Amino acid sequence: MYTMKKTAIALSVLVMAACQQPDAKSGDTKSSADSAKKVTEAPKPVAYSVPENLLGEHIDGPANVRDKVKGKAIFSLNDQTVVTAREPENGWTELGLLIDPTVADGLKISKGAVLTWRGKPVGKALEDFEAWETAEYNNEKSLVIGGFSTDNNIRKETLMENVFMQLAADSSKPLTLERMQPFLKSYQFETFTGLLDELQGYMYYDAMYLSPSPSPRFWPVFKGNELVAVFHSRKITIPGVQVSDPALYMSVFTRDEALIKKLKAKHIQYMNAAG
Fold first, then answer.
1. Mean pLDDT by 10-residue block, N- to C-terminus, for the chain (275 residues)?
2. Is 237 helix (H, G, I), strand (E, B) or coil?
3. By the 8 A CB rule, do 5 and 132 touch?
4. Which of 20, 22, 213, 236 is 20 to 30 Å from 146 at the Cα level?
5. Which among 249, 253, 245, 246 is positioned nearest to 222, based on CA atoms?
6. Tally of CA atoms within 13 A in the half-sphere of 71 that contains its CB
7. Which residues contact 218 (CB under 8 A, 6 or more apart)?
């Protein structure tokens, strides 16, 4: 994991549209039985496929990034650039990303410099500014840059909470480990503790480039192929799914109350130990 600065991001609730049957008009030749069938017929589930290689939040750009909230624009980011971001406050979010160190002189980046990541342009320096720090992972060197941007510069369809809610709302298949594999792969979850011996967990950390010790953002736990629970630091809403709130939100997907009781206790113990 990278060692870096600062933490979190915003989140939209899944909206579902309701259809209303219009009043019957004079001359309507359909029988009342046909009309009743149309009203009561349940809609067929729509299968949802998780987009590949989401990795994090994507910029809806081009978008300016500023040195502080309502501050000076120091660099811009291209559309679909992948970033990590805190949960928004008052319409603003702090975000960070990695760039190639070759675009800078040490940490100093000059106005007009094209910002790249792995050789691909991701933005442009609008002023002279400094990267936060250097980073290295698997022998790949990088610079960490960041700042503040308005919340509407993040594509909401790339927020993992929204993607998960879309996946959970698709009732065409059970929400299992097998079905969630594309989601886990798209965001590159790490294999992690399930807190109990019989459980397996997967972890995505919050605002990884913004904090030296990022906290859990999304932590699903499975028993075999069954999804038992998800610990999440940002709100998600899924019809019929119970949500509790110890140190983090916890959405429960199993009816095994004894297992959930033990899992909650272990989770609180883990979070207290982590500080």
1. 37 31 34 40 61 94 97 98 95 96 97 97 98 90 97 96 92 89 97 96 90 90 97 90 77 94 93 82
2. coil
3. yes
4. 236
5. 253
6. 15
7. 160, 161, 164, 187, 189, 203, 204, 230, 231, 232, 233
Q: Please tell me the distance from the alpha carbon of residue 194 to that of residue 139, in angstroms, as a whole number.
A: 30
| 239: DSSP letter | T
Domain range summary for the chain, segments of one domain joined by +: 57-154, 159-274
Closest CA to 218 of 45, 90, 56, 17: 56
* pTM across the whole model: 0.79
The DSSP H or E segment spanning 184 is helix 177-186
**Which pLDDT score is estimated for 24?**
33
Q: Report the distance separating Cα 48 and Cα 170, nearest Å.
A: 6
Q: Look-up: residue for tokens 């059970």?
A: 174
pLDDT value of position 246: 58
pLDDT at residue 178, rounded to an integer: 96
Rounded CA-CA distance 249/253 in Å is 13
Provide CB contacts within 8 A for 98, sequence distance 6+.
2, 117, 135, 142, 143, 144, 145, 209
**3-class secondary structure, 83:** strand
